[in-house]
Amino acid sequence: MTPDVPASRVAFEARLRQIGAERYHDLHPFHDLLHGGGCTPDQVRAWVINRYYYQHSIPMKDAAFMSRVEDPDLRRQWRSRIEDHDGTDTNEGGIRRWLRLARAVGLDPDYVASCEGVLPATRFAVDAYVRFVREKTLLEAVAASLTELFAPKIHANRIEGLLKNYEFADDSALSYFRNRLKEAPKDVAFGLAWVLDRADTAEKQDQAAKALTFKTDVLWSQLDALWGAYVQPGRIPPGAWQPGQGLVDARAA
């Protein structure tokens, strides 16, 4: 096959999945520490605070994407992603579920929602993802979302590990992850088919693969930031959350 000839649909999907197998953030040592029960309460809190910034930015990313979509069918399919996070009259949404996790680990949900303690590197990485979706082609934007192909495994491992190793973990605290096990498959099925249908040249396949790689870098860099600030060597940058801040009860420190 020459470089200008696109791979078959099967081969291209395998290429995308290989990116996840090699680069998805389930391979990061922070997740081994978290799921294995090795995180201190403050390390768990730091993860909750910083991951919230990603969670709260996802609907804005999706809204930016939809603002560029002229096809009403695509907009109809995509808007459920915003509802899954922001909630509806019948669905509290992922953001509220994440704030319930924040309270369960001893954090004031209002403090977490303020995003005041987010690490600079987390903010830069997540903002870069929102900007990527706003500025790149629709194909690249959808391809970047395909990290959800690999999410069910990490959610299942997280539920098992947190329930086994942490006192705060119960069905209420972990409801975000349980709901994503139900919500993500529909998004993945649509997004993957959409990318496979439209990446019909070698150039477009390369663009999609690079977009997915970029997204894995966004996720990985967030964990690198957590590791450097709160695990080893533990250098918390100015303005980022300090243990003892933003607690529901200061005595919990």
Automatic annotation (TrEMBL):
Record's keyword annotation contains Oxidoreductase: yes
Pathway: Cofactor biosynthesis; pyrroloquinoline quinone biosynthesis
Gene3D superfamilies named among the record's database cross-references: Heme oxygenase-like
InterPro entries hit by this protein: Haem_Oase-like_multi-hlx, PqqC, PqqC-like, Thiaminase-2/PQQC
Protein family: Belongs to the PqqC family.
HAMAP family from the UniProt entry: PQQ_syn_PqqC (MF_00654)
Name of the protein: Pyrroloquinoline-quinone synthase
UniProt source species: Roseivivax isoporae LMG 25204
Gene this chain is encoded by: pqqC
